[in-house]
């Protein structure tokens, strides 16, 4: 819907209070675009539009366009879902411990990547094995604080 404000060029009726809007008064205009469709659901013909008019402010001091908008929002169902990760119910102390475990894991994976980037004759396989064991221990530790992330 397109919305704009202009001076009324000819008398019209307010969509909210159904009182006349007199020529020369400020008016809020809303244009609702309609896509004509056939029985099969394909687009057929040109777009059409329907114009709605509201008082900018009527004689009683009511802003009809604001009131109509508030009522339309109140009719909508409440928004239940949120995008993104779901929050984990942890205390501040548990959250701090989980954060430390995640940081340890990132430093261990960094060390493994550094070791694997070296030529094969210079790699320390005992170090890589120890670091891998530490990763498994961290999985067990973090399970107590909100579970193991899927990426692990």
What would your notes on this structure say?
The protein has about 150 residues and is of the alpha+beta class. It has two domains: about 1-75, first zn-finger domain of poly(adp-ribose) polymerase-1; about 90-140. It is built from three helices and five strands. The strands form two sheets. Strands 1-4-5 form a three-stranded antiparallel β-sheet, with no helix packed on it. Strands 2-3 form a two-stranded antiparallel sheet. Strand 2 (about 10-15) and strand 3 form a beta hairpin. Helix 2 packs antiparallel against helix 3. The two termini are about 45 Å apart. The mean pLDDT is about 90.
What is shown here, in short?
This protein has 152 residues and is α+β, with helices and mostly antiparallel strands. The chain is 37% helix and 18% strand. It has helices spanning 64-75, 92-117, 125-142, and strands at residues 2-7, 12-13, 20-21, 26-34, 48-55.
CATH class bucket of the largest domain? Alpha Beta
Taken as a percent bin, the fraction of beta residues is 15-25%
Average pLDDT, to the nearest integer?
88
Q: Largest sheet, described in full? A: 3 strands, antiparallel
Would you count the extended β strands for me? 5
Query: Any low-confidence stretches, pLDDT <50, length ≥5?
Result: none
CATH topology of the largest domain: first zn-finger domain of poly(adp-ribose) polymerase-1
The 3D shape can be described as: elongated
Class from helix and strand fractions: alpha+beta
Give the strand order, joined by hyphens, for the main sheet.
Answer: 1-4-5
Structural domain count: 2
In angstroms, what separates the terminal alpha carbons? 46 Å
- What is the CATH architecture assignment of the largest domain? 2-Layer Sandwich
Number of alpha- plus pi-helical segments: 3
Radius of gyration: 32 Å
Helix content: 25-40%
Task: State the order of secondary-structure elements, H for helix, E for strand.
Answer: EEEEEHHH
């Amino acid at each position: 819907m397109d919305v704009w404000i202009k001076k009324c060029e000819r008398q019209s009726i307010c969509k909210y209070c159904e009182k006349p809007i007199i020529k020369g008064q400020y008016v809020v205009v809303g244009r609702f675009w309609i896509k004509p469709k056939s029985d099969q659901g394909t687009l057929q013909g040109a777009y059409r539009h329907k114009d709605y008019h509201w008082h900018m402010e009527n004689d009683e001091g009511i802003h009809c366009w604001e009131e109509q908008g508030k009522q339309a929002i109140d009719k909508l169902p409440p928004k239940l879902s949120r995008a993104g990760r779901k929050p984990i119910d942890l205390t501040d102390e548990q959250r701090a411990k989980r954060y430390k475990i995640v940081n340890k894991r990132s430093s261990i994976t960094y060390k493994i990547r550094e070791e694997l980037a070296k030529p094969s004759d210079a790699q320390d396989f005992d170090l890589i094995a120890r670091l891998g064991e530490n990763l498994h221990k961290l999985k067990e530790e973090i399970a107590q604080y909100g579970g193991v992330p899927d990426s692990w």
